[in-house]
Amino acid sequence: MLYRTMPQNGDQLSALGFGCMRLPMKDGAIDRKRAIAQIRQAVDQGVNYVDTAWPYHGGDSEVLLGEALRDGYRDKVKVATKLPSWMIRSRADMDRYLDAQLKRLGISCIDYYLVHALDGDLWDAVAKHGVTEFLDAAKADGRIVNAGFSFHGLAPDFKRIVDAYPWIFCQIQYNYLDETFQAGTEGLQYAAAKGLGVVVMEPLRGGNLGRPTPPPAVADIWAHAATPRTPVEWALRWVWNHPEVTVVLSGMNEEAHIEENLAIASQAAAGSLTAQELALVEGAAGKYHELMKVGCTGCGYCMPCPAGVEIPKCFDLYNQLHLFGNEAGMKYFYAASLGVVQGEGEGAGFASRCVACGACLEKCPQGIQIPEVLERVVADLEGEGFDERLAGVRAMFSK
């Protein structure tokens, strides 16, 4: 495992952090035994930064992480979690959530505490309620050690938030498709120049950049590399190539993925990609931008949908249709995964259930015009023959 230094406090943090937003599931809940084993496996092999948040897994992620930190593991890691900024209505709310998080985690102090998912408006709201005074007080009484924020807004707002408080670190979405999206490269460099450590989320853009079989046009680009690498390795190495990056979070929920990520994190030093390799990544990024139809990372902040639409799943299948082709197969899979796996009749999560209520719009950190895109999902993945496909897959799965 390679380690990088948090600039202001000197902490030596593992280049790879364990993200607890997408833990393994079983029977509709976290597979606790497996998730704990995975977290401990990563820690035993050098990971010392673990990240969770109030809403992950409906609040159970923090509880699960607390369970994983027993038996001596608390002393081996730095724990990061986040204040749910969109739920704050008063200064007292901040203390209430922090105290509840300490209880969920079963610890007395949070090492890295973030004000979660900020954009300009959310920052103005929590600032009005006294968030800077709250952070000062929480540091003074020992409930948190380092204060930071995570960001899902526009670049100008990112800079003013960086300048608004003596932050130790920030967390941004960053990958080779998002150099000019949200904080982007400009924000990464700005934060680093101000002395902030930078934690990166979504290095694989919701897993889309790490698919074992990329689109043929992208696979052709990777085939020209002098050193063969998997799509995951290309994506992670590109982020770690930036010296401004302190930690890269990966939402690992498969044992093989953990091992692969650990292996890459033991080699991917800053500045290690050649000019030729960087040109290949740039080419792959351009091709993905040509092919992708919606920039959804699958974070799930838009959920639950009041009408029952499984929004991230719909968008994932929509992107897969346009990235990988196979129209007949994808239409079948759409009907099967949403009409059978997600439930039948009123329980199905099809895009056509959208009533354009707009509840998802203010919650989407990517700024996606969700109802409009769902209309395109309906056109491409439902349409003619949909009822027959749905009846067919339900008959098959009922046997």
Kindly estimate the percentage of residues that lie in beta strands according to DSSP.
Answer: 5-15%
Mean pLDDT: 93
The CATH superfamily name of the largest domain is NADP-dependent oxidoreductase domain
Number of strands: 12
In which order are the strands of the major sheet placed?
3-6-7-8-9-10-11-12
**H/E element sequence:** EEEEEHEHEHEHHEHEHEHHEHHHHHH
Number of helices, counting only DSSP H or I runs of 4 residues or more:
15
Overall SS class? alpha/beta
Helix content: 40-55%
Q: What count of domains describes the coordinates?
A: 2
First-last Cα distance: 48 Å
- The CATH class designation of the largest domain is Alpha Beta
Q: Give the CATH architecture of the largest domain.
A: Alpha-Beta Barrel
The name of the CATH topology of the largest domain is: TIM Barrel
| Tertiary shape | globular
Major beta sheet, specifics? 8 strands, parallel, barrel
The Rg value, from CA coordinates, equals 21 Å
Instruction: Give start-end ranges of low-pLDDT stretches.
Output: 342-347
